[in-house]
Amino acid sequence: MAVECVDPERDAIILVDVQNDFCPGGALPVPEGDKVVVALNGLLQRVRAFTVASRDWHPPNHCSFTPQGGPWPVHCVAGTPGADFHPDLTTDRLAHVVSKATRPDEENYSDFEGTGLADLLRKRGIRRVFVGGLATDYCVKATALDAVKHGFETTVLEDAIRGVEVQPGDSARALEEMKRAGIRVLRTEDLA
Ligand code: VGL
Ligand code: ZN
After folding, report:
1. Is position 17 within any domain?
2. How many domains does the chain have?
3. Is residue 4 in a domain?
4. Does ligand 1 lie within 6 Å of residue 72's CB atom?
5. What is the CATH number of the domain that holds 75?
6. Is residue 106 part of a domain?
7. pLDDT in tens, 99-141
8. What pLDDT digit, counting tens, does each position of 162-188 carry?
9. Burial class (CB in 10 A: 0-12, 13-18, 19+), 62
10. pTM above the 0.85 mark?
11. Nearest Cα to 11, choosing from 168, 128, 143, 155?
12. 85 CB less than 6 Å from ligand 1?
């Protein structure tokens, strides 16, 4: 049952960090991270929207890496295979790619922080955003919360996201936080 009609003139789909290092076998694997690819590809095939993909795009000495005292293993180093989009992700109709956390001293989980994404979407007349990708409890959450702050009507696609789950329950808590912020939760099959 389609509950929502996607309008390419005003709706954007944001694919957050669907990169090899966040998928099983990668440097910072999200459990079932690759499952988002099937859900997102199905959506992209069915609906036309202004589609943006982000990528975590770190320098080799990024402050979030354990050798620098950060919390994460070395991941998504710019230009390496781990930083590539998942090979099966449909990327042929992307309108824009956002690279983030590109400087050694700057961590950034949100696609909107320091990327110009809000202005770009506004210039295109976008008023609503639909968010999927990785990881629910970090970049998806930060991106969706920022989208609300920038005034976009924001929906997160629950079958097209997966979490790192550093602590069990982190993804569920992230979803609750997003709902409290006014973010709607739908499934990709709800969109037509
Ligand atoms: C992310 C941890 C570190 C993410 C990025 O894309 O959610 N998580 N860097
Ligand atoms: Zn990162």
Report:
1. yes
2. 1
3. no
4. yes
5. 3.40.50.850
6. yes
7. 999 999 999 999 999 999 999 999 999 999 999 999 999 999 9
8. 999 999 999 999 999 999 999 999 999
9. buried
10. yes
11. 128
12. no
